[in-house]
Amino acid sequence: MKNNASRHQIRAAKIAQFDPNSVGLTNNRFIGLPFAEEEAQFVFLPVPWDVTTSFTAGTAYGPQNILDASVQLDLYDPDFPDAWKIGHYFRPIDPRWLSLSQQYRNQSELYIQFLESGGQIQQDQAMQSVLKKLNEAGEIQTQRVKKACTDLLDQEKLVGLIGGDHSCPLGYLQALADRNAAFGVLQIDAHMDLRNAYEGFQYSHASIFHEALRIPQINKLVQVGIRDYCEEELQRAKADPQRIHVLFEQDRMDMLYAGKNWAVICQELIQKLPPNVYVSFDIDGLDPSLCPNTGTPVPGGLSWNEAIFLLRQLVDSGRRILGFDLCETGGSGNAWDGNVGARLAYKMANLCAKSNGISAK
Description:
Layout: H1 4-17, E1 42-47, H2 62-69, E2 88-90, H3 95-116, H4 125-154, E3 158-163, H5 170-177, E4 183-188, H6 208-212, E5 218-226, H7 231-238, E6 244-248, H8 249-257, H9 262-270, E7 276-282, H10 304-316, E8 320-327, H11 335-355
Parallel strand pairs: 1-2, 1-3, 3-8, 4-5, 4-7, 5-6, 7-8
């Protein structure tokens, strides 16, 4: 691998030859940027996986949708002028893992249909075998993600994971825990995702933060946009108020309707987070007009400007964003979902880089 000085020189040469005001290039790179992974300082890691999504499948194709739509973006970011110069790179989507996701998805659909028709897993050995295989696949996928993230972090890259369903970032959180004594998580989501092995899936999209809270280094979870949850999840949060803080969407809107300023609400949320923060953004945390083909859409949610304001305030507070995930974007063929997802991925990458003191020079 070339040393840092050499990578900087290559990046500088490409910057000098690139016109950020020209037409977006369809070169299968994020926003048509010229950078290879080696010289990029920020890497998007696509995880094409949606085995356990219980409503609408297809988010495994969300990363490709985001990449395809990114060519329509303009590069100027008022929060980080010349941010594109840091070097953004979107790893190619692994067709093998996309194929495995579909293969396991086919099995999980049969299993979910079995449960929804009243089937009892304890009485059906065939379905027990299916569930075992699916949980094993989830473990393999989690370890694969952890290794990929660890390798990138070892190269001093900043990483944005692009899912797939919301089970995808567990391995990334494990990788960050290996190198950070403590950090918090800001979760923007319609769902709490605190179910214990929902439908029997240990690595369910609905169980990601039940599993993540097994990681002792995660000392605070702040959830925003929550409007669809069960009694089990509510009791889980109430049982650990020092570690879990939830701003339910109904409460958020009540505060806004009563005249409380969103900026004040954001500051109150941010004050609950430690200096180092991971951002987990399930796109269904937004109003579904912005993500109509997400895996589990729910009425209500944050507007685009509300979400961006919260993220900007997080960075302006001096907190460092260790990394982030963006999950559950609708798959290929849903151009609007891809457009919104690509813009959100770019903004989050730039704010992450800014919070880490990355220079565009």
